[in-house]
Please model this.
Amino acid sequence: MIGERIQMLRKRKGLSLTELSQRAGVAKSYLSSIERGLQQNPSIQFLEKIGEVLNVPVEEFVNSDQSERPATGLDRDWEDLVREAMASGVSKEQFKEFLEFNKWKSARD
Model:
């Protein structure tokens, strides 16, 4: 559901409902009703405003249902983590270095 996805991303960013609604310029009550599933078909304009604050493209909200996604072998949490790393500016090289460091560290233990 789109509302659940918005809520998860909002919490991951550490934003309250009020903060997200203010930053996106949308009504807090409407955002709340979307997150709780009372409203289920938000407009593209609404999703664009929310997505801009959360650094998520509209497609991410619309295509978040697992049945609509290609099988990647990754669960949603891993996908979200990778997207969050990308959105925060972590490069592939930095991520690879981090993995190599962890492998090296684990081998020493």
User: Anything to note?
Assistant: The longest helix spans residues 92-108. Residues 66-71 have pLDDT under 50 and may be disordered.
